[in-house]
Design a protein that fits this description.
Blueprint: H1 39-52, H2 54-85, H3 88-99, H4 103-160, H5 168-209, H6 220-223, H7 232-240, H8 245-253, E1 266-268, E2 271-277, H9 284-288, H10 291-297, E3 305-308, E4 315-321, H11 334-337, E5 350-355, E6 360-363, E7 370-373, H12 380-391, E8 398-403, E9 419-422, H13 426-447, E10 458-463, H14 466-469, H15 489-500, E11 506-511, H16 522-525, E12 530-533, H17 539-546, H18 548-552, E13 568-572, E14 585-589, H19 594-606, H20 625-633, E15 638-640, H21 641-651, H22 653-656, H23 661-671, E16 676-679, E17 682-686, H24 687-700
Parallel strand pairs: 7-11, 7-12, 8-9, 8-10, 10-11
Antiparallel strand pairs: 1-2, 2-4, 3-4, 5-6, 5-14, 12-13, 13-14, 15-17, 16-17
Helix pairs in contact: 2-5, 3-4, 7-10, 13-15, 20-21, 20-24
Binding site for ATP: 374-381
InterPro entries: FtsK_dom, P-loop_NTPase
Organism: Streptomyces graminofaciens
Length: 706
């Protein structure tokens, strides 16, 4: 038998006898068998997988939750029973009042406790006599019942002529009692069996209603706070865990009566409101400074809890929103939905939005300077524009407008504003500054008018005013246009309007962003009667925007969420209804887009005779009065001479600020007869006759200047 020889070593002679290379076979040993995983390891993995499985967790939570409901429901029922039978409740309230330093309330609860003990003693003394009286009552009742039944039987016997009917009612009553006894005998056994289960079910229902289970065992939606109602116990626990030692110790001394600190929990818009009277030794700012922790203790986000300081001493007012309610948009503005709406500058209020209660928030603009600030792209221009849109529906109101952003946010006021300057450059700042200085001259003219003279409202509106304050350009006299010094032209013009403008209805409205001492000087921001702020970055900016009083009273625009709370303003003003004892109010403003704004300004333009909007400021050059009269008359068929004079003064106060009716009549009479005439008893200027006089004058080549 032949054998195949396998060489395990490479031969040194690489050639065979016939000269060819030999075939070498290499033997590769098999891999060693894998060691089996020990049983205890496999068992541990299986147990870990089973224990950490979501179904197991849900089952454990459900068992623990329902078990805790039943056990804690028994504790709640036992506590209620004990409170009802003893004076424990009154003693807790006394301790709570003493811990809060309210001695009057402690004395009142002590008096109630004495009355309760006296009534309980009286009831116990009555029990000594009740067995005898009960026995007498039973005997008398039984005798009367038997007598009635026998009497009824006698009547039946007489009626039927059968003596046996005398006992028929008594026999029927005995049979009925026997039936009841048999029913009780049948039901008693199952009742004894089912009764404990019904009792446990009742205890479970009490515990379930109170959510009396550990937090980890509660359902996911309750653990996350979705839909969780705010109850007195939740508020007290949130305050207890706030990290204020004096507050925590006082609540512990109160026992379960910590809710005595709380006023009534009231539904307030999309949330609730409650006043908390703090115990002695706890200041209101200690609670204000822990707003985030308080919100998390209430299972809310920080922006869903607002803390204000009412008039009552040692009291904070908490407003807690429903989860996610502040992320829902509010409805459209009445300016958009009601096409018949008009405005009354003196007596009306602008529909601006809604407060946190969900009530309409309206702002009075009458003789109030306005300042709106906030971070960039938070809705400042839209909030400011919505006020201008409302007041534009009052045909008597005049506008001078400067937009130092210049992206067309105010284009719709072309044809409404006497002046509209738009652009971000230094030249635009110069134009806006001269516009504001022209308003100062108009203010001075009005101030020098005879006493009792009334003037229409002139609103000088500058959006992105920080560009003007930061402008480094100087005029030919080396006076800076920007800055906050006594020779700064824009700053001083605004200050002059702030000082005296409201007396003659010349008002300054400004919108700025990211306020600092450089781009919003102290004297300017404090000159505004209505101050509103969107989201800001720091508390110091909030103080710049709203003032120390508002911030110390709970105003916190720095707590608003940039990008998420767009259009939400914190307002400090006497022109808006603020809850008593508070210094500010939070308003969620209506959003009015550009198309809706165009429609509103079209309605405002229809109320006017026509306004020619200037886009540059005239710098005192020679003027043609007839051309200027034609400019201010615009497209209206006729305009009252009184309005023509007012528009000329707005157009150029230097040239026409001192004009009277005599000056106007002289120019018109020189141009042609009957340009000014009476219509319905009022002197008016006719557009067609004025244009005809201009055409005739141009043909003659004559002109006049002023």
């Amino acid at each position: 038998m032949s054998e195949n020889v396998v060489y395990l070593r490479k031969p040194t002679d690489t050639t065979s006898a016939d000269g060819t290379a030999p075939t070498v076979l290499t033997v590769v040993p098999d891999a060693p068998p894998t060691r089996p995983v020990p049983l205890w390891v496999r068992s541990g993995r299986a147990v870990k997988s089973a224990v950490t499985h979501e179904s197991t967790k849900a089952t454990v939570r459900a068992v623990a939750r329902h078990g805790a409901y039943t056990f804690n429901g028994g504790r709640i029922v036992a506590r209620r029973t004990w409170d009802g039978k003893t004076g424990a409740r009154y003693e807790r309230m006394i301790r709570a009042a003493e811990a809060a330093g309210n001695l009057e309330a402690a004395e009142e609860w002590e008096e109630r406790l004495q009355r309760f003990r006296a009534a309980r003693h009286h009831r116990r003394m009555d029990l000594l006599h009740s067995p005898v009286e009960a026995a007498k009552g039973v005997a008398v009742g039984a005798g009367m019942s038997i007598g009635v039944l026998v009497g009824l039987g006698v009547v039946m016997a007489i009626n039927n002529g059968d003596v046996a009917d005398v006992i028929t009612p008594l026999s029927a009553t005995i049979d009925f009692i026997a039936l009841l006894i048999r029913i009780v005998q049948i039901v008693w056994g199952p009742a004894l069996t089912i009764g404990p289960f019904l009792a446990l079910l009742a205890l479970w229902a009490v515990g379930s209603k109170q959510q009396a289970a550990p937090q980890w065992a509660l359902p996911a939606n309750v653990r996350s706070g979705d839909g969780e109602p705010i109850t007195p116990s939740i508020v007290v626990k949130a305050l207890r865990d706030l990290g204020v030692p004096a507050l925590r110790n006082a609540i512990k001394d109160m026992g379960d009566a910590g809710a005595s600190m709380l006023g009534p929990i009231r539904i307030a818009g999309c949330g609730i409101e409650v006043d908390v009277t703090l115990p002695s030794g706890v200041s209101t700012n200690e609670v204000q400074q822990r707003r985030r922790k308080l919100a998390e203790n209430l299972t809310r986000h920080e922006h869903e809890v607002f803390i204000t300081i009412p008039e009552a001493a040692r009291t904070v007012r908490l407003w807690v929103a429903d989860s996610g309610a502040l992320d829902e948009p509010i409805g459209p503005s009445p300016l958009v939905t009601d096409e018949t709406m008009t405005a009354d500058y003196t007596k009306g209020k602008a529909p601006w939005g809604q407060d946190l209660r969900g009530d309409a928030a309206a702002l009075s603009l009458y003789q109030r300077h306005l300042l709106i600030t906030g971070l960039s792209n938070q809705g400042k221009t839209v909030a400011l524009r919505s006020l201008a849109l409302w007041v534009a529906l009052d045909r008597s109101v005049q506008f001078l407008m400067g937009d130092l952003k210049g992206v067309g946010d105010w284009n719709m006021f072309d044809g409404l504003a006497s002046t509209l300057i738009q652009g971000p450059t230094d030249e635009h700042v110069i134009q806006v500054t001269e516009m504001v200085e022209g308003a100062v001259e108009e203010m001075n003219r009005r101030l020098q008018a005879p006493p009792g003279t009334t003037f229409p409202a002139l609103i000088v509106l500058v959006d992105e005013a920080q560009v003007a304050f930061m402008c480094p350009v100087k005029d030919e006299d080396k006076r800076p246009y920007g800055g906050s010094k006594s020779n700064s032209r824009y700053f001083m013009a605004v200050r002059k309007i702030h000082n005296q403008g409201r007396a003659v209805n010349v008002l300054m409205w400004q919108g700025t962003q990211d306020p600092t001492d450089q781009n919003l000087p102290k004297l300017v921001r404090e000159g505004a009667h209505t101050r509103a702020s969107l989201a800001l970055g720091t508390e110091s900016q909030a103080r710049m925007a709203l003032g120390d009083k508002a911030v110390d009273g709970g105003a916190a625009p720095n707590m608003l969420r940039p990008g998420l709370d767009q259009g939400t303003l914190v307002v400090a003003s006497s022109g808006i209804d603020i809850p008593k004892g508070q210094s500010s109010i939070t308003v969620r403003t209506h959003y009015i887009d550009d198309d809706a704004a165009e429609a509103i300004t079209d309605r405002a333009k229809a109320l006017r005779d026509g306004v020619t909007t200037l886009h540059v400021i005239n710098r005192g050059e020679d003027r043609d009065p007839l051309d200027d009269i034609a400019t201010v008359v615009g497209d209206a068929p006729r305009v009252r001479t009184k309005d023509v004079l007012a528009r000329l003064a707005t157009l150029n106060a230097d040239a026409y600020g001192d004009w009277s009716f005599t000056d106007l009549k002289r120019v018109l009479d020189d141009a042609g007869p009957d340009i000014a005439y009476k219509s319905d008893g009022v002197m008016v200027v006719a557009r067609d006759r004025l244009h005809r006089a201009l055409a005739n004058r141009d043909d003659d080549g004559s002109t006049s200047t002023v």
